[in-house]
Amino acid sequence: MTRSGHAAGALERKVLAFLAAAARPLTAGEVLADLGGTLAYTTVLTNRASVLASFVAHLDEDDEQLLAELIDERSHPANGRAGARSA
User: Fold this and answer.
1) Which backbone phi and psi does 25 adopt, to 5 degrees?
2) Based on the structure, what is the number of domains in the chain?
3) Is 16 within a domain?
4) Helix (H) or strand (E) holding 23
5) pLDDT 10s per residue in the chain (87 long)?
6) What angle do CA 57, 58, 64 make, to 5 degrees?
7) Cα 43 to Cα 67: distance, rounded to the nearest angstrom
8) Residue 56 lies inside a defined structural domain of this protein
């Protein structure tokens, strides 16, 4: 159990359900506000990292490569590689 009295798995499911239902990306503060503000800010951030790690873990090899290229293009826009990969 967490200090707020939630079972760890139940808390993660609650956070993930809230994020999945949102029509846009949310900040940790917005998630905290919806959950009543009883959690530590870092608890919500930890769940964000967990969500991203889970997302990447379920990508197939082609999608993982595409994601890596997109991140690289965003991080290094001068590379001029935008649109280099065909679908």
Assistant:
1) -60, 145
2) 1
3) yes
4) none
5) 555 555 667 887 888 888 888 888 888 888 888 887 777 888 777 777 777 888 888 889 999 999 999 999 988 877 555 555 554
6) 75
7) 26
8) yes
